[in-house]
Amino acid sequence: QVQLVESGGGLVQPGGSLRLSCVVSGFSLDYYAIGWIRQAPGKEREGVLCINSDGSTSYAESVKDRFTISRDNAKNTVYLQMNSLKPEDTADYYCAAAHGRAVMYGPTWYRDPQRYEFWGHGTQVTVSS
């Protein structure tokens, strides 16, 4: 059974940091890419970064140089380290899995929520003073 379980969300002040975790089961990170998709209040879901099955990473401009995605295949876990958080980063954050062939859709494939096959339930991140 495929599962993705996020954790680590919470309330943080602007400029602060959080680390989200996504524990996966039922499939191998060797064959699936993992993306982090966020949905701010009143807005559509948007993919902001991903780690592909080969370990390469891609970042949207809005989070580049502030967020870092990594994975530990032995622990079946993907991490999202978020630094220099801004109020506009407030959103529900979801990790989702796409088969490795998703890269065929181009370097920004991760931005489209429809590319993902499996989803976690999300974790809330609030950036506020």
What report would you give on this structure?
It is globular, with a radius of gyration of 13 Å. The protein is built from no helices and eleven strands. It is mainly beta and 129 residues long. The strands form two sheets. Strands 2, 4, 5, 6, 9, 10 and 11 form a seven-stranded mixed sheet that branches. A four-stranded antiparallel sheet has the order 1-3-8-7, with no helix packed on it. The chain has strands spanning 3-7, 10-12, 18-25, 32-39, 46-51, 57-59, 67-72, 77-82, 91-99, 118-119, 123-127.
Poorly predicted runs of 5 or more residues: none
Largest sheet: 7 strands, mixed
Strand percent estimate: over 45%
Radius of gyration from the CA trace? 13 Å
Subunit arrangement of the protein: single chain
The averaged pLDDT comes out at 96
Amount of helix:
under 10%
DSSP E strands, number: 11
What sequence of helices (H) and strands (E) makes up the elements? EEEEEEEEEEE
Shape: globular
Structural class: mainly beta
Treating each run of at least 4 consecutive H or I residues as one helix, how many helices? 0
Kindly, what is the distance between the CA atoms of the first and last residues, rounded to a whole number of angstroms? 40 Å
Task: Indicate the topology.
Blueprint: E1 3-7, E2 10-12, E3 18-25, E4 32-39, E5 46-51, E6 57-59, E7 67-72, E8 77-82, E9 91-99, E10 118-119, E11 123-127
Parallel strand pairs: 2-11
Antiparallel strand pairs: 1-3, 3-8, 4-5, 4-9, 5-6, 7-8, 9-10, 9-11
